[in-house]
Amino acid sequence: MEGGEPGGGGGLLQQILSLRLVPRVGNGTATFSTSLSTFPEMWYGVFLWALVSSLSFHVPAALLALFTLRHHKYGRFMSVSLLLMGIVGPITAGILTSAAIAGVYRAAGKKMIPFEALILGVGQTFCVVVVSFLRILATL
Question: How distant is the alpha carbon of residue 23 from its chain centre?
Fold first, then answer.
């Protein structure tokens, strides 16, 4: 399937992987621009990458926990909590931080290219992973 075909099966996945995050509607057909200029476009781009990168860390961790703790009486439910953290975290905190980033870009009058959205979204997940592994919050 080509990327421009309407009704393609892997449309969302193809958008994510090709960095064309936000389709714009013009004259009844979806076209793609190279920059994200409005607040919702920038917010959605950063949020989507934060969600996808968070899930790419948490789904393998949940599967590993499920595999290694499958015989434990209560340990098998740890995989559910890991998966929920990978979804709930970006939906709550990721929405706010992505909105703050998009707000700063919009207030500065700067346009965001999709690669910047990728870096900022994955950067949010990277910061969460670093804080989790360093156990900074446990020292407070």
Answer: 17
Give the mean pLDDT per block of 10 residues along the chain (140 residues).
50 59 50 75 91 90 88 84 87 93 93 90 91 78
Segment (H or E) for 30? strand 29-31
Backbone phi, then psi, for 21, in 5-degree steps? -80, -45
Q: Among residues 74, 96, 89, 88, which one has the least CA distance to residue 125?
A: 89
Beta bridge partners of residue 24, listed in sequence order: 31
pLDDT score for 14? 62
Which residues make Cβ contacts (< 8 Å) with residue 13, sequence separation at least 6?
Answer: none
Cβ atoms within 10 Å of 83's Cβ, excluding its own: 18
Q: Which residues contact 111 (CB under 8 A, 6 or more apart)?
A: 35, 36, 37, 105
Q: How many angstroms separate the CA atoms of 48 and 96, rounded? A: 13
Which residues are CB-contacts of 83 (< 8 A; sequence separation ≥ 6)?
58, 59, 62
